[in-house]
Amino acid sequence: MHAEFKSTESEDRYPLSQVIYRGKNGELLEVSHDRKAWNSRTPQEWKTLFAERRLSFNVADLSGVWSKRELVLPELPESDIVSLQEGWTPLFNAERLAKEIGIKNLRVKLCGNSHTGSFKDLGMTVLVSQVNHLVKNGAPIKAVACASTGDTSAALSAYCAKAGIPSIVFLPAGRISVAQLVQPIANGSIVLALDTDFDGCMKIVQDVTADKSIYLANSMNSLRIEGQKTIAYEIAQELGWKLPDTLIIPGGNLGNVSALAKGIDDLLALGLVEKKPRIIVAQSENANPFYLAYKSNFDKFEAVQAKKTLASAIQIGNPVSYPKAVQAIKNYNGIVEEVSEQELSDAAHRADKIGLYNCPHTGVALSALFKLRERGEIASDESVVVISTAHGLKFSEFKSKYHENSLEGISPKYANAILRLPADANKVKDALRRYA
User: Fold this and answer.
1) Within its chain, how far is the Cα of 80 from the centroid?
2) How much is the pLDDT for 10?
3) Could you give the residue ranges of the DSSP H alpha helices within 67-114?
4) Does domain 91-117+225-403 have CATH number 3.40.50.1980?
5) Which of 125, 144, 357, 394 could form a disulfide with 215 if both were Cys (CB 3.0 to 4.6 A apart)?
């Protein structure tokens, strides 16, 4: 089996060993697989193989990504894999919430239940593994760099630390949570906080990585997509090799929706699933360039100056993966929705009431679900999976301030205030009677 970089706009192809991020005309690249070679196994044989690996203690098989390695980087030696046992994340059955909103069933794919607390681990294990392979084979790569709103930098720093490869992260100063900032610091990255937003950081990191001794780790590097696409594989396997009617995913730089669509493309090509789902992308209305383009039927795209949003990881006004995301929406009968800060905050905490602990980005996706259901654009007989992109513990300030009613501009409908009482059993009993 073989994989290589291919231009998204021409037949130009490049080996994965080449340090390259765009084609000759500046277009995005994708990792192209020899899908004919996949026919060496029948669909049932693939299913049997993946089921066996789910029970295996082989190092590669303990990763949800590398247990599907023939579909990711088929020529990478297992000895060069840099893994932190990413993937195999839970598919939370949100049946109580499904009943509340009146749909067939609802599940939440908890991609944040991972080593660094976000779905970024899925893509970073692939990218850093390939860099590790290149360095072992003499490539003059001195470090790996990324621009980040938090989660990418955490993943890059952890995987590079595991591999013993230096990492550099460019962060917008004062715009990410403390939990996100401390992760790359703890893992020994060179951390640069710049007086700009994510889009400004992205411009600078592209300039810095023009020196090919520093490898670019942002999602315009399509190696990341190969790991992130395995979200689709896992959902299908967890549902008995079926996909839901609808998948909802928050969108910022739009690499994740591109990856989701690519994963579904693979499943269909392999014959592992039969039905195409619908893909819905949710954005904060404070950073909504993809939504605005969708409203104009993608006739034009205009970058926006992203405003501050509680969903800080998707506070992006000029998404790199826009062309791929447009194709994903068109291929999968998609919808793009926007939500307000109030809506995303309430949605995240409403869903917490059934045992989740949602980050604000998952709140964006859940809020889109609630709005579309209310408008009848999601029907009562639909099955839905929401992609949760990060763990709520990375956004504890967002959580605590919501319940303390101290989030600026937010009136918390689902706040759960702490009862502060004297150490008096009678007063405690009196207070508890109100809940009886």
Assistant:
1) 24
2) 92
3) 95-101
4) no
5) 144
